[in-house]
Amino acid sequence: MRALTLRRDGVAIVETYLDDAACTALLDEIHAYAARHELPLIVREDGERALRYKVIDGDAIHEDLPSLVALYERVGALVRASDATLIPLPNRTASVNVNLTPPGGEYRWHYDRNAVTAILFLNSVGGGETEMYANHRLRLGRAKDTLAQRALDRIWRFFTRFTAPLVVAPAPGRMIVMRGDRCLHSVRRVTGIEERINVIMTFDTPGARFRAEENLDPYLYSKTATPDFDPNYRG
Ligand SMILES: [Fe+2]
After folding, report:
1. Which of 157, 43, 183, 153 lies closest to 106, judged by CA?
2. CATH number of residue 184's parent domain
3. 28, 59, 195, 224: most buried, per Cβ within 10 A?
């Protein structure tokens, strides 16, 4: 198994984790799933950049898409080879997702709830670049979701206006692995006519707790239910 080396800023980019044939096989399974199930467009306005995407959540993947479960296990082995304390996220809904971002779609600026996230691109599209400010976050303490941390995140985010983000374009088989709870990240608007499709795989240490979980899941996955505050933080 190849080694995974995170840069000092907590990001690794694997240029070809999967070859084109493997990406095409997964895309065929995802398109077949999408043809059998209605995937609603989830829209959450959020200032400068909205959340506007479709998602196949981890529950659906574990029930209907075994190839993606196997992929999650292989990437998990790679991640654990660099940090043996990490395990798949126990929250099955959030553990492995497929994000389908149509033309005009984008993903708001955020930190992840979990420690490490792998983003595997399956295709290339116009726009849809992932933008990252790696190792950007100033932490007030171990809790990631307090209102005080939210205030600090907002202030600190202002200073990103003066520095350029790391920009990674979607390409089949390219994978980003990052310290997701420290890296401020976002997806630029998808242009052209192709839907951007990637797989999100999440990891954390055993026993990690997220007080925001109960609100974050409906925010990310539900067509209708949505809290009226930023669910990455405890209300
Ligand atoms: Fe994220």
Report:
1. 43
2. 2.60.120.620
3. 195
Instruction: Report CA(187)–ligand 1 centroid distance (Å).
Output: 9
Full residue range of the structural domain in which residue 70 is found: 11-221
**Cα of 80 to ligand 1 centre, how many Å?**
19
Distance from residue 38's CA to the centre of ligand 1 (Å): 23
In a domain, 226, yes or no: no
How far apart are the CA of 2 and the centre of ligand 1, in A? 24
Q: Which of 89-93, 134-138, 171-175 has the highest mean pLDDT?
A: 171-175
**Dist. CA 112 → ligand 1 center (Å):** 5
Alpha-carbon span 170 to 133, nearest angstrom? 17
The amino acid that residue 208 corresponds to is A
Whether 232 maps to a domain, the answer reads no
What total number of domains does the chain contain? Answer: 1
